[in-house]
Amino acid sequence: MSVSADVYVPGEVTLPAEDGLFALPPPLEPGASAAPETHRPTFHGEGGTLLGIQIVNVFLTFATFGVYWFWGKVRVRSYLCSQTELEGDRFAYHGTGKELLLGWLKVAPMLFGGYFLLTHAKLLGGGRTWRFGAIGASYALFLVFVPFAQVQALRYRLSRTSWRGIRFSFRGSPLAFVRLYVVGTLLDLLTLMLYSPIYATRRQAFLTTNTWCGDRRFDFDGDGRELIRSYLRSLALTVPTLGLSWFFYLAAKQRYFWNHTTVGGARFHSTLTADAYLRLKLGNLVLRLFTLGFGWPWVTARNARFAVAYLSLVGALDGAGIRQDARDASATGEGLAGLLDGAGFDLG
Amino acid sequence: MRLDWDGWYLDGETAARRRARLTLGPGGLEIAPADAATCAWPYAEIEQRQGHYAGEQVRLERRGGAGAAVLVDHEFVAALRRVAPADAARFHDPAVRSRRIALTVLAAVASLGMAAAGYVWVIPGFAAVAADHVPVRWEERLGASVTQDYASSRRECADPIRRQPLEELLAAVTAPIEGAAYRFRLTVVDDKTVNAFAAPGGYIIVLRGLLDETDTPEQLAGVLAHEVQHVLHRHTTRLLFEQTSTGLLMSLMAGDPGGTVAFAPQAARVLGLLRYSRTHEEEADVDGLRLLQTGGIDPRGMAEFFEKVQKRVGTEPSLFQYVSTHPKTAQRIERLRELAAGGTRARRVLLPLVDWRRAREVCTVGR
């Protein structure tokens, strides 16, 4: 899809890009020694290999009249996970195509109905009041549905991701996130989007502090106030820089989010810069344009590499201290988010 | 054969990684971690999760083993395949990798073949069936919204007095249609491009450029009769289905399903890019001509106009888009000419009291 989908719009849905794992801070333990250890995650994957996977997926999807689509998705995710390394160990993906298919089957009729109402209300006829009522109701439903699907998808993805045999999990309440989302969106509109940096930080705080690796919870200690200045500067420079000033805010936001994320006594550290981010997006755009969209495997590999390239965690890693504490999650939420993919929302 | 190997063991209880001595025993894999109890996994219960690609660590798990895993190198897997031939199919053989490229190329060729077959046969077939099942009311609403979207970026020439002759023409053309499910509506848009198209549900759009090229009311009647037949045969509805399915097919192949469901807003843009197929064109030509004859309208104007724009397109291809959206060959125009000559003689003169050169100026403001 277009680059604009990645440019931050207040209130926009931001889930970790395809295969959420990269947004997961790996587990840590408080360091006992004085000199802090630094750990760097690495992505080893190649666009060429992904292209091979994609070709076989397309073939099998055609040959099975679309059913294999879900298994293909699992193969791509497994690849992206197992090519991401931390401390000599690769992440692992445990989801299955069957889970994804069943999750999709459960929500597809409901969501297509809703989407149809939203976009084709004028085709259905009826009085003006009825039509506007239907459209209004669909938007309201959508406002509730997006955060709900986002949390449920995250819950599913994390429950199927592991590092050193320890499963991740998401334990936040979907309703709490829906409340945060609806209130935040309204406040955002009331303050003419000036509330955006605080709102984005509050969403990030909710998602981070409800993420666990085994029995270890991630923590977040930012309130977003520091982002306001960067936000206003980017806003003020939007016209003279033709919108490029937003890359400064986006990079600052990512740095801020990571630098305020901790687990145990260790803290993440990001050195992401605006020009690196701009180069990534421009490169992806060129790749997509010149391959008529078929450069997807390289774009995905570039994004995955970028997600960890500027990231490190400082503090001791004590694997023995992290204990298994897996939580189950159904793929229904994944199905919900999968449908949003189809509707053009970049939920992955 | 070597039966003892060094590897790593994850117990699935903590994130600690232990060195382990691995032995390929007669009934299963014996695992002796550095500072934990020894365990044995029957071969039939071992599954490989990672290690299908070069440079990736090999990860073996026990089915139902709650996260316990063994990390080994690729050579170990080769030995494992030999020790447990019955279960070998579940373990990745690096020798397969050289064949993998050939298989991938094969899959690519097969996919392209299937996509082509889908494009040529499956999608048109599906579109024809689907279009026949769309209720006319839906077509009308779709046509209305498409026309509205199309006209919104340009000026619509809506002066009822100036439009009057055109409305009379349309009425004369559509008069012989019996039991028509559609009510035909004409929209004139101020655009110098020479083109006309049919949106679903009876909406016909004519651009000012096309009006300017017509010399007689009969020529415009020919164009209208042609577009009316596109509506009656549901060609546009079918094409919109085809465009959507093709978009879906393309995005499926590109691995990017985003943005394909949003179809209605695109439809208006698609309208200008429609390429009617040869069969659609012939149907619309021949049936359009019959419609004129039934209504007692001189059908020679139709062939005349097609011939004229066909000649003029060479000078200004970008202006004469009618030719590219309604492809015709010299043979087909010739056939129309014969059909027109062979039919019954025209019984009426269209708009006898009107100066056509003046009447066609629907978009002129003032004067």
What does this protein look like?
The complex is a heterodimer of chains A (348) and B (367). Helices cover 55% and strands 11% of the residues of chain A. Chain A is α+β, with helices and mostly antiparallel strands. Chain A has an 11-stranded antiparallel sheet with strand order 1-11-10-9-8-7-6-5-4-3-2. In chain B, 49% of the residues lie in helices and 15% in strands. Chain B has a 7-stranded antiparallel sheet with strand order 4-3-2-1-7-6-5, with helices on one face. In chain B, strands 8-9-11-10 form a 4-stranded mixed sheet. In chain B, strand 6 and strand 7 (69-72) form a beta hairpin. The longest helix of chain B is centred in the first third of the chain and has 37 residues, at 96-132. At the A-B interface, helix 1, helix 2, strand 4 and helix 3 of A face helix 2, helix 3 and helix 7 of B.
Concise description?
The complex is a heterodimer of chains A (about 350) and B (about 375). Chain A has helices at about 45-65, 70-80, 95-125, 130-160, 175-190, 195-210, 225-235, 245-260, 275-290, 295-310, 330-340, and strands at about 40, 40-45, 85, 90-95, 160-165, 165-170, 210-215, 215-220, 260-265, 265-270, 310-315. With about 350 residues, chain A is of the alpha+beta class.
Question: Main traits of this protein?
Answer:
heterodimer; A: 348 residues; alpha+beta; 11 strands; 55% helix; 11% strand; disordered C terminus; B: 367 residues; four-stranded mixed beta sheet; rod-shaped
Q: How do the strands and helices of this protein lay out in sequence?
A:
The complex is a heterodimer of chains A (348) and B (367).
Chain A: E1 38-39, E2 42-43, H1 47-63, H2 69-82, E3 84-86, E4 89-93, H3 97-124, H4 128-159, E5 161-163, E6 166-170, H5 174-190, H6 196-209, E7 211-213, E8 216-220, H7 225-236, H8 246-259, E9 261-263, E10 266-270, H9 274-290, H10 296-309, E11 311-314, H11 332-342
Antiparallel strand pairs in A: 1-11, 2-3, 3-4, 4-5, 5-6, 6-7, 7-8, 8-9, 9-10, 10-11
Helix pairs in contact in A: 1-2, 1-10, 2-3, 3-4, 3-11, 4-5, 4-11, 5-6, 7-8, 8-9, 9-10
Chain B: E1 4-10, E2 18-24, E3 28-33, E4 39-42, E5 46-50, E6 58-62, E7 69-72, H1 74-83, H2 96-132, H3 136-152, E8 155-156, H4 160-174, E9 185-190, E10 196-199, E11 203-207, H5 208-213, H6 217-232, H7 235-254, H8 264-271, H9 278-294, H10 300-312, H11 321-325, H12 330-342, H13 356-359
Parallel strand pairs in B: 9-11
Antiparallel strand pairs in B: 1-2, 1-7, 2-3, 3-4, 5-6, 6-7, 8-9, 10-11
